[in-house]
Amino acid sequence: MSEDIPVIAIRNLHKRYGALEVLKGVDITAHRGDVVSLIGSSGSGKSTLLRCANLLEDSQQGDITFKGEPVHWKGEGLQRRPADPKQVLRIRTNLSMVFQQFNLWSHLTILQNVMEAPVTVLGRDREEAEAAARKYLDKVGIGDKADAWPAQLSGGQQQRAAIARALCMEPEALLFDEPTSALDPELEQEVVRVIKGLADEGRTMLIVTHDMKMAHDVSDHVVFLHQGLIEEEGAPEQLFGAPKSERLQGFLSSTM
Ligand code: ADP
Ligand code: MG
To answer: What does each C-alpha distance from 207 to 1, 21, 99, 109, 175 come to in angstroms?
Structure first.
């Protein structure tokens, strides 16, 4: 892949739920190795944007391109849908999502949780998938929890298992939706450390977060969303150090 082709490019994206216009023309680009953080008040459209990016959610206008491959649509407006289910699967499995609430299967062990999708969705050989799952559990520091049940783990450990599960899909990019918001402060840092490690090894990531310190420390680019539009964006030093818009200034002072 040529380096100037972004892993994800979103152009002029519009999304509405009935009469509620949630995204009003948003552009996001992530090249290979980029960490892009999305910040903004609750309700500004951050989660919706992530869910539209990996086609968990429909959008009504605008383009989404994955490694130079534009999403094919059929229909228009509220009827617009992705046209090609195989393309949807390819894109979704390559943009692995990590959710605020971990979403582990409670009836599966940690190891089974991590190897489930590679086996059932990607058709990987079980032994291969298990070896990969153990490798990623080691990587996030919970190799010893492979045979535990999710309920036996702390929130921080469960979230690290969810990150291992996302990594086990060998995705092109990881999408995080408030990965530390459900965690007690003392458990947050173990997840932040894992995310920093992934940034250091050059993973492509879109991260919705209200942890401004993490956004500052891991991002190449930070986007401030306000009511479905990008109000300001830039390098973290600039965005956090010298915010231009009054709304961003207000938002940042309210998060201190
Ligand atoms: P954020 O993640 O920035 O807090 P969201 O993307 O979750 O914001 O939500 C943006 C807006 O869209 C909010 O007003 C929210 O109430 C609305 N919204 C989100 N999901 C749905 C849905 N499934 N149906 C209707 N409205 C929704
Ligand atoms: Mg959200």
So the answer is: 23, 22, 10, 27, 6
